[in-house]
Specification:
Distance between the termini: 57 Å
CATH topology of the domain at 78-290: Rossmann fold
Radius of gyration: 30 Å
CATH architecture of the domain at 78-290: 3-Layer(aba) Sandwich
CATH superfamily of the domain at 78-290: P-loop containing nucleotide triphosphate hydrolases
Mean pLDDT: 74
Structural class: alpha/beta
Helix content: 40-55%
CATH class of the domain at 78-290: Alpha Beta
Number of helices: 31
Strand content: 5-15%
Bound molecules: 2'-deoxyadenosine 5'-triphosphate
Largest sheet: 7 strands, parallel
Number of strands: 23
Shape: globular
């Protein structure tokens, strides 16, 4: 054997050893993960066991549970549940006579006694459990007034209306009140007779009004400022889901008024978010009281959504008509367009439903809200804009037409049901394509993808009670027994069986590998189709079509995604986000003989199956909703009308050629390029020409949580082409001047017009130069700010050191939304590199 073949053999063996090592490493990681899960479960159980023993022996000593910052024994805690405080009689009297409530809910009395004792407190209580009472009642029992910081004017108005109704004097200061009114309120702050017991202000007011701060200073000196309540306190922290920059400046309150007790209230805050809030608000070792998030009166259920949008709305309509006749409810949808569509479809089916979304004028919004509250409207079909401040006690159902983007969001939204403690239902319609629809929207968020997958897991996981899956997100354990058959998984436990899906998963991996070998990327829909024996034959070759139903196919793919055998792959252009499937980290494990993968599925007639109606629906020609997932500004193409399906089927029957071979294509390519779709075309090489309607929604148009990007195009038809590089060049050359004219968010006119065919004189257009200058100015401004603030922080004796000087300025630094800056940078890069390439290719010099 010569030297070189020996080297080759050694190299080959090394490769195989390395591959094996990689597999072993994966198995170790899996086992470690399992170990971590079991250990954390063990710890929780031990803690609960300890608690159970403690409560069985009340005299035994003390372990601190609910106190986070400040260590307080259990006995000490329980002491605050008593009614032997100097203020207790007044508190109980006011509860009954003023607030007309018969008794306190869990933790309310403890929180009230603690804040009346002058302690700083964080109160974490589920939405609708009565946090407001914990500062309203103490306000009435104290001298002077309580300052309440609230993020929304509508929330303030709601509270003031309610307080006026029960004869508690309250005032507010915000941009919507008249100058005279504001003057009177300012005077009231320092009035020893305290004309109001509660003063509601926005955080912006605290940050910007020097007059307010000086009035509060005087009130503090005169001992009239009895308490500070910070509602939605999680808004202080960037790690919370609803960060507001002005909340960051509220630390001034505790610095200026150190002796005034502070009460922070929130429905959603993890311990790390609270730690952050503690620092931002400058409170020293506050006590944290956390009420259980388990809403025992809510029944949780997940239903599989029909892929056909119309059919899915039909399902919702018949559900409402059969189960909730004449009852009040909410249907949450993904987009404003969905809100309009679903509400009008429900109306057609005699359901009194109205839409609610951020793009409606304020009058229409408040009319819908008012009439729904007064039971004149039965159902509100809403985006997430219908949120804070919704406090209708008798909401009997909350249906999600599309899954929420995280468990926390779902908990909040579904939590609007059953606030009167009577039973209510929370039902999600879980659709395969919705996962990717939302995925592309949250891709720019910090842990958006991770949170979405947790929500998907909630919908798909039949191993555990829905409640217990939700509890993990609130650092709680809700036993399956504790669910009391109040979720569909617990109710139908006998209908489920664990199925070995290893062989199915292997087939999926084969299809993915085949696609990779052809240098092709598969969208989720293409993967489903290929596995089911549909779509281009090259995607499956010798791989046998699966015998599973479409719904099972989707379930297996989702399972593989959740477990890391598959993963998402995004591809970005300045205008579009593309979504594909990729083999995940764990995929190689499926090559090991002994490795198995299983999941629970519903059993009917001895086989894991789905409703026959669903199978039927699946056997119909499916829509090409995301083929590939062409996202315009974070929004997926919407299902087309039947007419388009027919057109498409017809063209399929006729047999389609790659469009680059048709003369017609050139015309189209030219048109599309002139329409400014050049970047999209680049991503569509190797695709079959199909008609897809792309739903592009502008900044005001997607899902009302501000994630919508910028272009103001409503709808457009788009062609996915099999164009080649050569064709594109040619088309490009045919086009004399190519204008890309994006519109700025909310602005009607195109903000920029960049010639993509640079003249002899300018390699980079004026607009691009302007953009570069703007970007440079922006960064130099931020840099100046960092310098300035670093200097300021170095001079602060409380937080010395280099770390503080770096961390603090960065904390309060204003940055544009991630999406905006990402898009700006990408757009700029595309243009600059495009021009650089042109120069390089000697096209223009
Ligand atoms: N002890 C009680 N007994 C009966 N009802 C109560 C009690 N305390 C409060 N409520 C009612 C009053 C309201 O209608 C409802 C919700 O109270 P509220 O203070 O608005 O909740 P919250 O502030 O925790 O919710 P959100 O997080 O939505 O702001 O509960």
């Amino acid at each position: 054997m010569d030297g070189s073949s020996e080297t080759n053999e050694m190299q080959a063996e090394l490769d195989s050893v390395e591959a094996e090592l990689e597999l072993v490493q994966l198995q170790i990681t899996e086992l470690l993960q399992k170990q971590a899960e079991l250990t954390s479960r063990k710890n929780v159980l031990l803690e609960r066991l300890g608690e159970a023993c403690d409560s069985a022996q009340p005299s035994s000593s003390a372990s601190s549970t609910e106190s986070c910052g400040h260590v307080m024994s259990k006995q000490e805690m329980q002491h605050y549940d008593g009614t032997d405080f100097p203020w207790s009689k007044e508190v109980v009297w006011n509860l009954k006579e003023l607030f007309k409530l018969s008794k306190f809910r869990p933790l309310q009395l403890r929180a009230i006694n603690m804040t009346l004792s002058g302690k700083d407190l964080f109160l974490v209580m589920p939405t609708g459990r009565g946090k407001s009472l914990c500062y309203q009642l103490p306000a009435v029992c104290s001298k002077g007034f309580t300052l309440v910081i609230t993020p929304l004017v509508s929330l303030m108005e709601d509270q003031i209306m309610y307080l006026q109704l029960i004869n508690v004097p309250a005032a507010m200061l915000n941009a919507s009140i008249s100058k005279n009114n504001a003057k009177a309120v300012m005077a009231g702050i320092t009035d020893p007779k305290s004309p109001f017991k509660l003063l509601y202000v926005t955080p912006e007011k605290i940050a910007k009004s020097k007059l307010l701060m000086s009035c509060l200073e005087k009130a503090y000196k005169a001992k009239l400022l009895s308490r500070i309540a910070v509602d939605e306190v999680h808004c202080c922290s960037q790690w919370g889901h609803d960060f507001r920059p002005d909340y960051k400046l509220l630390g001034i309150l505790k610095r200026q008024f150190p002796k005034v007790p502070l009460l922070g209230l929130t429905a959603t805050a993890t311990s790390s978010v609270l730690k952050d809030c503690e620092k931002i608000l400058c409170v020293q070792q506050p006590i944290t009281l956390s009420a259980s998030f388990n809403r025992t009166n809510l029944y949780y259920e997940v239903r599989i959504k029909d892929p056909d949008n119309e059919a899915s709305i039909c399902d919702i309509a018949s559900l409402i008509k059969s189960r909730y006749q004449d009852q009040s409810g909410i249907v949450y949808v993904f987009s404003q367009k969905d809100a309009e569509l679903v509400s009008s479809e429900l109306q057609k089916r005699d359901i009194l439903a109205y839409p609610y979304h951020a793009n409606m004028d304020p009058d229409s919004k408040s009319r819908v809200h008012r009439e729904w509250t007064a039971n004149k409207i039965k159902v509100v079909v809403a985006t997430v804009a219908f949120g804070m401040g919704i406090d209708k006690p008798d909401v009997r159902f909350v249906i999600h037409h599309t899954i929420s983007k995280s468990i926390e969001n779902y908990y909040q939204e579904s939590g609007r049901a059953g606030r009167d403690d009577a039973s209510a239902d929370c039902i999600v319609f879980f659709g395969f394509s919705d996962i990717f629809r939302i995925s592309t929207m949250v891709v720019m968020e910090n842990v958006g993808q991770q949170k979405l997958l947790q929500m998907v897991d909630y919908c798909q996981n039949l191993d555990r009670c829905r409640r217990s899956l939700m509890a993990v997100h609130f650092d709680e354990v809700w036993d399956d027994e504790g669910c009391n058959q109040m979720c569909d998984t617990c109710c139908r436990v006998k209908d489920y069986s664990t199925v070995d899906i290893t062989e199915h998963a292997k087939q999926v991996v084969q299809i993915m590998e085949l696609a990779a070998s052809m240098d092709e990327k598969l969208t989720p829909l293409k993967l489903v189709e290929a596995w089911m024996g549909k779509g281009p034959a090259k995607h499956r070759k010798t791989i046998k079509p699966t015998t599973l139903s479409r719904q099972q196919v989707e379930a297996v793919i989702v399972r593989m995604l959740l477990q890391g055998y598959l993963r998402e792959d995004f591809s970005f252009t300045p205008y579009t986000t593309y979504f594909y499937m990729k083999l995940g980290r764990k995929a190689p494990l499926l090559k090991i003989q002994s490795h198995t993968l299983s999941m629970k599925m519903r059993i009917t007639d001895g086989r894991s199956a789905v409703d026959t109606s669903d199978v039927k629906a699946n056997e119909q020609d499916i829509d090409i909703t995301f083929d590939p997932i062409v996202m315009k500004n974070g929004c997926l193409p919407q299902p087309r009308q039947k007419v388009f399906k027919e057109q498409r089927n017809q063209s399929r029957k006729q047999g389609l050629k790659p469009v680059s071979q048709t003369g017609k294509w050139r015309e189209k390519a030219k048109k599309h390029l002139t329409d400014g779709h050049r970047e999209e075309e680049e991503h569509q090489r190797g695709c079959i020409e199909v008609e897809v309607e792309v739903n592009i929604i502008d900044n005001t148009g997607v899902s009302d949580d501000g994630k919508a990007p910028s272009h103001q195009i409503k709808y457009c038809s788009k062609r996915k082409s099999a164009t080649t590089q050569r064709v594109r060049r040619k088309a490009c050359a045919n086009v004399a001047a190519l204008d890309i004219s994006p519109t700025t968010p909310g602005g009607p006119a195109p903000a920029l017009t960049v010639s993509s065919s640079p003249s002899q004189a300018s390699i980079i257009s004026d607009t691009a130069v302007k953009e570069l200058c703007d970007l440079r100015n922006y960064y130099s401004k931020q840099l100046r700010r960092i310098n300035y603030m670093s200097h300021e922080h170095l001079e602060q004796p409380t937080e010395p050191g280099v770390l503080a000087c770096i961390r603090e300025p960065l904390r309060s630094l204003w940055l544009p939304r991630r999406v905006t800056i990402g898009r700006m940078a990408r757009s700029l890069w595309t243009r600059v590199s495009g021009r650089r390439k042109l120069v390089h290719d000697n096209i223009i010099v």
